[in-house]
Amino acid sequence: MSPRLLSGHEPLDTVLGGGLPANAISLIMGRPGSGKTILAQQYVFQNATPKRPVVYFSTVSEPLEKIVRFGQKLNFFDRTAIGTSVFYEDLGGTVNQHGLTGATEQISAAIKERRPGLIVIDSFKALHAFADDSAQFRRFLHELAGRLSAFPTASIWVGEYEDAEISSSAEFAVADAILELTTARSGLRAGRTLEVRKLRGSGFWSGVHAYRISADGLRLFPRLADAPLEEDYQQSGVRASSGIPALDEMLADGYWPGASTLLAGPTG
Ligand SMILES: Nc1ncnc2c1ncn2[C@@H]1O[C@H](COP(=O)(O)OP(=O)(O)O)[C@@H](O)[C@H]1O
Ligand SMILES: [Mg+2]
Q1: Cα–Cα distance between 246 and 250 in angstroms, integer?
Q2: What is the pLDDT of residues 8-55, one digit of tens each?
Q3: What's the per-residue H, E or C state across 70-101?
Q4: What is the pLDDT of residues 201-219, one digit of tens each?
Q5: Listed residue (41, 7, 10) closest to 222, CA to CA
Q6: 4-221: what CATH class?
Q7: Domain locations in the chain as residue ranges
Q8: Given the CA of residue 122, which atom of ligand 1 is nearest to it?
Q9: Is 209's C-beta closer than 6 angstroms to any atom of ligand 1?
Q10: How far apart are alpha carbons 128 and 169 in whole angstroms?
Q11: Residue 24 CB: number of other CB atoms within 10 A?
């Protein structure tokens, strides 16, 4: 199997068929507040080492100061890693002053200097505002993707993309993996779900999986439909007795071990 980028949270890595593809571009999409930045930070602290550090670029919608301030409330945020294996860089100022070309140059310079194992750009979508038209954005995208693929590093691009943008925004075609975070309302409840929308070169668990956010980060509860059965699982052919001979007789020969039986009836 090709190498994978792990989140450190096993259910998520399992849903991803073993993890995000390493040395590839992954996209995390979802509305504001869905947990994109928190999930990206989980990958950061799970994978950062002094030899292969992580560079986290913030752009205009995610100011650096906020990412670090809110990050510190997360249990996995490791202050001591900052400056040795995790480097936060502001890309917003550069893109404001020097446009998308400036952004490409800053990212390239960081790759040369730090030799990172992972690069995060949060928010990537915010960079759209600095292109005169979609053709210019495409040129920027292809230039950046080219420079990233020349060096063995994984990238996570974060964005407040809507569903419709999957077919219209060029970054979705470039991305090797797409994770979508959604909040759906049902009555008074708001349920958070994650879906793998694309994963090049690997199988993954389809459908939507519920998740929760806490100070431990994103915690996933994969739906069971895709869970592979234990290979050596054999259902016993021996029935269990209810202990009431007449009832066993009515049920032909009792209950199957490992099966569930619903007892229904009025109170009392
Ligand atoms: N300690 C926590 N416990 C529960 N939920 C939290 C905690 N910290 C953050 N959150 C939730 O995470 C959300 C922010 O996540 P964030 O990654 O910043 O979202 P995004 O980057 O998608 O806008 C908040 O709206 C809040 O609901
Ligand atoms: Mg965010």
Answers
A1: 6
A2: 999 999 999 999 999 999 999 999 999 999 999 999 999 999 999 999
A3: HHCCCCCCCHHHECCCEEEEECHHHHHHHHHH
A4: 899 999 999 999 999 999 9
A5: 10
A6: alpha beta
A7: 4-221
A8: 21
A9: no
A10: 10
A11: 22
